[in-house]
Amino acid sequence: MPKPFHFKLEKVLDFRKQAEEQARQALADAQRLHLEQEEVVSSVKRKLAEHQAKEYEKLSAADLWLWRQYNEALKSDLTTAENRLKQLALNLQKARMIAVEKSKERKLLEKLKENQAEKYYEEESLKEQKEYDEMATIRFKPKDI
User: Fold this and answer.
1) How many CB atoms lie within 10 A of CB 1?
2) Is residue 38 within 8 Å of 89, Cβ to Cβ?
3) Which of 88, 111, 133, 144 could staple 34 via S-S, CB 3.0–4.6 A?
4) Model pLDDT, residue 133
5) CA-to-CA dists, residue 90 to 4, 87, 96, angstroms
6) CB-CB contact of 115 with 18 (8 Å)
7) How far is Cα 56 from Cα 62, in angstroms, rounded to an integer?
8) Distances from the Cα of 88 to the Cα of 11, 63, 81, 95, angstroms
9) What whole-number distance in Å separates Cα of residue 33 and Cα of residue 20?
10) Quick one: CA torsion of 25, 30, 32, 38, rounded to 10 degrees?
11) Per-residue CA distances from 4 to 121, 124, 139 (Å)
12) What are the residue ranges of helices labelled H in the chain?
């Protein structure tokens, strides 16, 4: 019976698995932040639409000034929120690419491990077969004719 296969790069494989898990966690965090920012943008857009739907023609000069100031502040907030959303979208894409790369690196090393294990067990099987053949040859006694 052959002894078990020992992969020499097992620690590297463990490290790559850990790096892949960290990349997945970073991706999940990036997705969460992106979704939260989408909600912020939606909220600001809703507030702006509600504010602009109000009738401002009947307002006094002071109230009209306040209406315009608030309208400008909402537009500024919307621009800021949309810029932040764009930045978070870039971060999300980068995190996704890193996670895919880490996954490929791990899979590559796992494939190497599988191939080496398969080759190892084939070689062990051949050695065992040769030993059996040798024993059979040694034990064989031809019958005298």
Assistant:
1) 5
2) no
3) 88
4) 87
5) 46, 5, 10
6) no
7) 11
8) 34, 37, 10, 10
9) 20
10) -170
11) 9, 10, 29
12) 10-53, 61-139
Token pair listed for 36: 């939260």
pLDDT in tens, 20-72: 999 999 999 999 999 999 999 999 999 999 988 887 777 788 888 998 999 99
Q: What is the pTM of this model?
A: 0.76
Token look-up 């059996």 returns 132
Report phi then psi at 15, rounded to 5: -65, -40
DSSP 104-130: HHHHHHHHHHHHHHHHHHHHHHHHHHH
User: What are the two backbone dihedrals, phi and then psi, of residue 84, each rounded to the nearest 5 degrees?
Assistant: -65, -40
Task: Choose which CATH entry (1.10.287.1700, 3.30.70.790, 3.30.70.20, 3.10.20.30) describes domain 10-109.
Answer: 1.10.287.1700
Q: Are 30 and 90 in contact (CB under 8 A)?
A: no
Residue whose structure tokens are 């790096």:
19
